[in-house]
């Protein structure tokens, strides 16, 4: 008997970056996409029938924090949530508890945890210490980090330090040798600290003051600093989360002058406004903060103009207790959950604005994979790529935070109760179904570390 040519065939409407292939099929062999077509599907050992549903590339979340609140144990729950949300590759930030990923030894320890705990594949950022261990950058690159993360604002002198300008310049020059991207947490320390001190002194500690003490200028000033250093060093410098359309304009302006500059939008800045932090209190606190409704419109104009590098979540699953507002918004942890709601919310926002679903495949899968050097292995439905797939069922579904797949105290969401225009019906990791619409089928350790695939840069 002739052996079936494919391990699995998956049927559905295939969402490619430039079109939707209705009535399509994907042939999977040895964990990769082996063929794509329409019409009658070929023989396979198994056929997964998702006809009438959207089949997209598994999302690549280019910005998340699995271990910033609970340490490496957080990898297990966050990647479980990713599997349920159709995110098949998590690009994880380095600011872990108790120490960040600043050298090859720490990275090796984290890789052991990824291989033991992850439900989906993971790529990893590296960083440096406040004292400037720039000499460790080369070892991190050799070990496979996809990008670097530095900050202009200090949350913790060890775990999340502010890197001063001379040290940042040194780091940029070293990273520039490799073509890797360095993403920057972009807030001006001096302004934020002074405004926060003034607010506390006057007893103004209610939720809206989080926005008032981090006004737009605190962000754009930091953008200008890092982009000037990009121009000086030739390093690819990237805004890790622009809440302002102006950030993308500045990146474009500096690119016109020869700099390698870019930025990403987190999904909350495409839908949440200052009114939402008043409603959500601590569960709406993130940095940078929510902006005005007018700014949300400007952000969408930047998306439509092709200025946004990609869209991410900045997923940071703080324990519920750390997010509860008890009269002082400054005492609340900054960060939102967003992994499991990512795909349904992005689909909803695009449809509300009459934009094509292909932008979901582009902005939240292929482009982040390209920026982080993971393409063509990750980020697209194409022959030779890993068979990572997200199946979306269209309809009206209400997002329920109680259904988040993570530890109990991480089952909260700023999007709780929001009506979505789709749900994740299935997720496939390298051709294996890891979410069936109800349960995560993958076990801890099913995910793998994905090192950077090449040294080619990408500016979008």
Describe this protein's structure.
The model has no long low-confidence stretch (mean pLDDT 97). The protein is 30% helix and 22% strand. It has 460 residues and is α/β, with parallel strands linked by helices. It has a seven-stranded mixed β-sheet. Strands 5-6-7-8-9-10-11 form a seven-stranded parallel β-sheet. It has a two-stranded parallel ribbon with strand order 12-13. The longest helix has 18 residues, at 216-233. It has helices at residues 74-84, 104-117, 137-142, 165-176, 189-201, 208-212, 216-233, 245-256, 274-280, 293-304, 320-323, 342-352, 358-371, and strands at residues 8-15, 20-29, 32-38, 47-57, 59-64, 87-92, 121-126, 147-151, 181-185, 236-239, 260-263, 265-266, 311-312, 389-398, 419-429, 432-435. Helix 4 (165-176) crosses helix 7 and helix 7 (216-233) runs parallel beside helix 8.
